[in-house]
Amino acid sequence: MPQRHSKNNNDLAYFTYDEKKKLGYGTQRERLGKDSIKPFDSCSLCLKPVIDPMSCQKGHIFCKECILECLVAQKKDIQRKTAAHAMQQKQDKEDEEEKLALQKARELDAFDQQNHGALPQYSDKNYNRDKNGFHGANSVKATLYEEEALRTMKAFWLPSATPEAPSKVEAPSTRTTCPEGSEELKMKNLFPIHFTEDTTTEQKKATSLDKSYICPSCKVTITNTIALVALSSCGHVFCKKCADKFMAVDKVCLVCNKGCKKRNLVPLEKGGTGFSAHGDNLEAKEFKHLGSGSGLGLVRPAMKT
Question: What is the pLDDT of residues 15-37, one digit of tens each?
Fold first, then answer.
Protein backbone atom coordinates (compact mmCIF):
# COMPACT_ATOMS: atom_id res chain seq x y z
CA MET A 1 0.00 0.00 0.00
CA PRO A 2 1.57 3.32 -0.97
CA GLN A 3 2.24 5.80 1.80
CA ARG A 4 0.88 9.31 1.93
CA HIS A 5 2.81 11.63 -0.35
CA SER A 6 2.34 14.66 1.93
CA LYS A 7 4.10 12.89 4.81
CA ASN A 8 7.12 11.83 2.76
CA ASN A 9 7.60 14.65 0.31
CA ASN A 10 10.89 16.37 1.06
CA ASP A 11 11.73 18.02 -2.24
CA LEU A 12 10.08 21.34 -1.41
CA ALA A 13 11.99 24.59 -1.00
CA TYR A 14 10.71 25.00 2.54
CA PHE A 15 10.02 22.85 5.60
CA THR A 16 6.51 21.58 6.02
CA TYR A 17 4.87 21.52 9.43
CA ASP A 18 5.21 17.74 9.68
CA GLU A 19 8.94 17.94 8.86
CA LYS A 20 9.40 20.60 11.53
CA LYS A 21 7.64 18.46 14.12
CA LYS A 22 9.90 15.52 13.30
CA LEU A 23 12.96 17.74 13.86
CA GLY A 24 11.67 18.83 17.26
CA TYR A 25 10.21 22.21 16.31
CA GLY A 26 7.98 23.89 18.88
CA THR A 27 7.76 24.07 22.66
CA GLN A 28 9.37 21.09 24.36
CA ARG A 29 8.05 20.27 27.83
CA GLU A 30 9.63 17.98 30.38
CA ARG A 31 8.50 17.15 33.88
CA LEU A 32 11.30 17.64 36.39
CA GLY A 33 12.10 14.69 38.60
CA LYS A 34 13.28 14.49 42.17
CA ASP A 35 16.93 14.70 41.17
CA SER A 36 16.33 18.07 39.51
CA ILE A 37 14.87 19.70 42.65
CA LYS A 38 16.94 21.14 45.49
CA PRO A 39 16.38 19.29 48.80
CA PHE A 40 14.93 21.24 51.70
CA ASP A 41 18.15 20.97 53.75
CA SER A 42 20.51 22.21 51.02
CA CYS A 43 22.12 25.61 50.78
CA SER A 44 20.73 27.86 48.06
CA LEU A 45 24.26 28.99 47.13
CA CYS A 46 26.51 25.93 47.26
CA LEU A 47 23.65 23.39 46.83
CA LYS A 48 25.23 21.16 49.47
CA PRO A 49 23.82 20.04 52.84
CA VAL A 50 23.73 23.12 55.04
CA ILE A 51 26.42 23.75 57.65
CA ASP A 52 25.37 26.14 60.41
CA PRO A 53 22.14 26.92 58.50
CA MET A 54 20.76 30.44 58.47
CA SER A 55 17.56 31.77 56.98
CA CYS A 56 16.32 35.14 55.79
CA GLN A 57 12.88 36.55 56.52
CA LYS A 58 11.60 35.07 53.23
CA GLY A 59 12.57 31.52 54.21
CA HIS A 60 15.63 30.97 51.98
CA ILE A 61 18.18 28.68 53.64
CA PHE A 62 21.95 29.24 53.34
CA CYS A 63 25.14 28.05 54.97
CA LYS A 64 26.45 30.65 57.38
CA GLU A 65 29.79 30.93 55.61
CA CYS A 66 28.21 31.10 52.14
CA ILE A 67 25.73 33.88 52.89
CA LEU A 68 28.25 35.97 54.84
CA GLU A 69 30.78 35.73 51.99
CA CYS A 70 28.02 36.71 49.54
CA LEU A 71 27.03 39.79 51.54
CA VAL A 72 30.66 40.86 51.99
CA ALA A 73 31.26 40.46 48.25
CA GLN A 74 28.18 42.56 47.50
CA LYS A 75 29.39 45.33 49.82
CA LYS A 76 32.83 45.35 48.17
CA ASP A 77 31.19 45.54 44.74
CA ILE A 78 29.02 48.45 45.91
CA GLN A 79 32.11 50.29 47.18
CA ARG A 80 33.89 49.72 43.86
CA LYS A 81 30.92 51.01 41.84
CA THR A 82 30.48 53.99 44.16
CA ALA A 83 34.16 54.93 43.75
CA ALA A 84 33.87 54.62 39.95
CA HIS A 85 30.75 56.80 39.95
CA ALA A 86 32.46 59.45 42.09
CA MET A 87 35.50 59.39 39.79
CA GLN A 88 33.29 59.86 36.75
CA GLN A 89 31.48 62.78 38.36
CA LYS A 90 34.83 64.38 39.14
CA GLN A 91 36.01 63.84 35.56
CA ASP A 92 32.77 65.29 34.16
CA LYS A 93 33.19 68.35 36.36
CA GLU A 94 36.78 68.84 35.19
CA ASP A 95 35.72 68.44 31.54
CA GLU A 96 32.99 71.01 32.02
CA GLU A 97 35.41 73.48 33.60
CA GLU A 98 37.91 72.93 30.77
CA LYS A 99 35.19 73.47 28.20
CA LEU A 100 34.17 76.74 29.86
CA ALA A 101 37.80 77.87 29.98
CA LEU A 102 38.26 77.12 26.24
CA GLN A 103 35.05 78.93 25.42
CA LYS A 104 36.21 81.96 27.39
CA ALA A 105 39.59 81.87 25.64
CA ARG A 106 37.89 81.79 22.23
CA GLU A 107 35.71 84.75 23.16
CA LEU A 108 38.77 86.76 24.30
CA ASP A 109 40.66 85.82 21.12
CA ALA A 110 37.72 86.86 18.96
CA PHE A 111 37.41 90.14 20.85
CA ASP A 112 41.15 90.81 20.49
CA GLN A 113 41.11 90.10 16.73
CA GLN A 114 38.05 92.30 16.27
CA ASN A 115 39.66 95.24 18.02
CA HIS A 116 43.32 94.93 16.99
CA GLY A 117 43.15 92.87 13.84
CA ALA A 118 44.73 89.51 13.06
CA LEU A 119 48.52 89.54 13.44
CA PRO A 120 50.83 86.94 11.85
CA GLN A 121 52.29 84.47 14.27
CA TYR A 122 55.82 84.63 12.80
CA SER A 123 57.50 87.64 11.18
CA ASP A 124 59.86 85.48 9.14
CA LYS A 125 58.02 84.26 6.05
CA ASN A 126 60.73 81.76 5.19
CA TYR A 127 60.36 79.99 8.52
CA ASN A 128 56.75 79.06 8.89
CA ARG A 129 56.09 76.58 11.68
CA ASP A 130 52.65 75.14 12.32
CA LYS A 131 51.21 73.77 15.54
CA ASN A 132 52.50 70.23 14.79
CA GLY A 133 56.13 71.34 14.70
CA PHE A 134 56.69 70.93 10.91
CA HIS A 135 58.05 73.69 8.75
CA GLY A 136 59.08 74.31 5.18
CA ALA A 137 58.00 71.68 2.63
CA ASN A 138 56.71 69.35 5.35
CA SER A 139 54.36 71.96 6.74
CA VAL A 140 50.69 71.00 6.66
CA LYS A 141 48.49 73.96 7.44
CA ALA A 142 44.85 73.08 8.17
CA THR A 143 42.18 75.71 8.23
CA LEU A 144 39.69 76.00 11.04
CA TYR A 145 37.03 74.49 8.81
CA GLU A 146 39.19 71.45 8.05
CA GLU A 147 40.05 70.98 11.71
CA GLU A 148 36.36 71.07 12.61
CA ALA A 149 35.58 68.63 9.81
CA LEU A 150 38.30 66.23 11.01
CA ARG A 151 37.04 66.53 14.55
CA THR A 152 33.42 65.75 13.64
CA MET A 153 34.05 63.30 10.79
CA LYS A 154 32.58 59.83 11.42
CA ALA A 155 35.05 57.81 9.36
CA PHE A 156 34.97 54.30 10.75
CA TRP A 157 37.93 53.24 8.54
CA LEU A 158 40.26 55.72 10.26
CA PRO A 159 41.26 54.68 13.81
CA SER A 160 41.94 58.29 14.77
CA ALA A 161 38.52 59.47 13.54
CA THR A 162 36.45 56.59 14.89
CA PRO A 163 33.72 57.97 17.15
CA GLU A 164 33.66 56.64 20.68
CA ALA A 165 30.52 56.27 22.70
CA PRO A 166 30.94 57.81 26.15
CA SER A 167 30.61 55.23 28.91
CA LYS A 168 28.42 56.36 31.77
CA VAL A 169 28.55 54.75 35.19
CA GLU A 170 25.19 54.88 36.88
CA ALA A 171 24.88 55.51 40.59
CA PRO A 172 24.82 52.04 42.23
CA SER A 173 22.28 50.89 44.76
CA THR A 174 23.63 50.83 48.30
CA ARG A 175 21.55 47.91 49.51
CA THR A 176 22.52 44.23 49.61
CA THR A 177 19.98 41.80 48.21
CA CYS A 178 19.15 38.18 48.83
CA PRO A 179 20.87 35.96 46.21
CA GLU A 180 17.75 33.78 46.00
CA GLY A 181 15.29 36.68 45.70
CA SER A 182 15.29 40.39 44.92
CA GLU A 183 14.39 41.65 48.40
CA GLU A 184 16.80 43.61 50.55
CA LEU A 185 18.88 41.50 52.92
CA LYS A 186 21.11 42.57 55.80
CA MET A 187 23.19 40.52 58.22
CA LYS A 188 20.95 41.49 61.12
CA ASN A 189 17.92 40.04 59.28
CA LEU A 190 19.44 36.55 59.20
CA PHE A 191 18.66 34.11 61.98
CA PRO A 192 20.05 30.59 62.64
CA ILE A 193 17.74 27.61 62.28
CA HIS A 194 17.91 24.20 63.94
CA PHE A 195 16.66 20.95 62.43
CA THR A 196 15.73 18.14 64.83
CA GLU A 197 17.75 15.10 63.84
CA ASP A 198 16.19 11.64 63.93
CA THR A 199 17.89 9.65 66.73
CA THR A 200 16.10 6.30 66.37
CA THR A 201 17.99 2.99 66.56
CA GLU A 202 17.98 2.48 62.80
CA GLN A 203 19.15 6.01 62.16
CA LYS A 204 22.16 5.64 64.48
CA LYS A 205 23.58 2.95 62.18
CA ALA A 206 23.44 5.29 59.19
CA THR A 207 26.35 7.42 58.11
CA SER A 208 26.54 11.16 58.62
CA LEU A 209 25.65 11.72 54.94
CA ASP A 210 22.31 9.96 55.40
CA LYS A 211 20.95 12.21 58.13
CA SER A 212 17.22 12.62 58.31
CA TYR A 213 15.24 15.19 60.25
CA ILE A 214 11.88 15.04 61.98
CA CYS A 215 9.36 17.50 63.27
CA PRO A 216 9.96 17.82 67.06
CA SER A 217 6.21 17.94 67.67
CA CYS A 218 4.60 15.16 65.60
CA LYS A 219 7.84 13.17 64.95
CA VAL A 220 7.11 12.98 61.21
CA THR A 221 10.15 12.61 58.95
CA ILE A 222 10.72 15.85 57.06
CA THR A 223 10.87 15.62 53.27
CA ASN A 224 10.27 17.97 50.35
CA THR A 225 6.59 17.04 50.41
CA ILE A 226 6.06 18.70 53.80
CA ALA A 227 5.71 22.44 54.24
CA LEU A 228 8.08 23.71 56.92
CA VAL A 229 7.97 26.71 59.26
CA ALA A 230 10.91 28.14 61.22
CA LEU A 231 10.66 30.33 64.32
CA SER A 232 12.80 33.43 63.91
CA SER A 233 12.87 33.86 67.70
CA CYS A 234 14.65 30.56 68.46
CA GLY A 235 15.29 28.93 65.06
CA HIS A 236 13.52 25.59 65.61
CA VAL A 237 11.84 24.07 62.54
CA PHE A 238 8.36 22.48 62.62
CA CYS A 239 5.97 21.23 60.02
CA LYS A 240 3.33 23.76 59.01
CA LYS A 241 0.46 21.80 60.60
CA CYS A 242 2.08 21.81 64.05
CA ALA A 243 3.13 25.43 63.72
CA ASP A 244 -0.40 26.56 62.86
CA LYS A 245 -1.97 24.31 65.49
CA PHE A 246 0.28 24.96 68.50
CA MET A 247 2.74 27.84 68.06
CA ALA A 248 0.25 30.23 66.48
CA VAL A 249 -2.22 29.56 69.33
CA ASP A 250 0.00 29.04 72.39
CA LYS A 251 2.61 31.58 71.17
CA VAL A 252 5.45 29.53 72.67
CA CYS A 253 8.03 27.14 71.16
CA LEU A 254 7.38 23.48 72.01
CA VAL A 255 11.12 22.72 72.25
CA CYS A 256 12.63 25.57 74.26
CA ASN A 257 9.46 27.21 75.64
CA LYS A 258 10.58 30.56 74.25
CA GLY A 259 7.84 33.00 73.44
CA CYS A 260 7.01 33.69 69.81
CA LYS A 261 4.51 35.76 67.93
CA LYS A 262 2.73 35.21 64.67
CA ARG A 263 5.27 37.33 62.78
CA ASN A 264 8.02 34.98 63.99
CA LEU A 265 6.58 32.10 61.92
CA VAL A 266 8.67 32.09 58.71
CA PRO A 267 7.67 29.57 56.00
CA LEU A 268 10.79 27.96 54.55
CA GLU A 269 11.17 27.96 50.78
CA LYS A 270 11.89 24.62 49.16
CA GLY A 271 11.69 22.87 45.83
CA GLY A 272 9.01 20.42 44.84
CA THR A 273 9.31 16.66 44.49
CA GLY A 274 8.49 16.34 40.82
CA PHE A 275 5.02 14.99 41.53
CA SER A 276 1.90 16.64 40.24
CA ALA A 277 0.24 19.55 42.07
CA HIS A 278 3.08 20.30 44.47
CA GLY A 279 5.41 23.28 44.42
CA ASP A 280 6.18 25.65 41.57
CA ASN A 281 8.35 25.51 38.45
CA LEU A 282 8.26 21.73 38.18
CA GLU A 283 7.97 21.76 34.39
CA ALA A 284 10.88 22.76 32.16
CA LYS A 285 9.95 24.47 28.88
CA GLU A 286 12.15 25.22 25.88
CA PHE A 287 11.19 26.58 22.48
CA LYS A 288 13.12 25.03 19.60
CA HIS A 289 13.09 26.63 16.16
CA LEU A 290 14.99 25.63 13.06
CA GLY A 291 18.15 27.43 12.06
CA SER A 292 18.16 29.32 8.79
CA GLY A 293 19.43 26.92 6.11
CA SER A 294 21.40 24.79 8.57
CA GLY A 295 18.81 22.27 9.66
CA LEU A 296 19.97 22.71 13.26
CA GLY A 297 17.77 23.89 16.08
CA LEU A 298 18.41 26.92 18.26
CA VAL A 299 17.07 26.69 21.78
CA ARG A 300 15.67 29.64 23.71
CA PRO A 301 13.32 29.81 26.75
CA ALA A 302 9.64 29.72 25.96
CA MET A 303 7.82 33.00 26.41
CA LYS A 304 4.94 33.08 28.85
CA THR A 305 1.57 34.04 27.42
Answer: 777 777 777 777 777 777 777 77
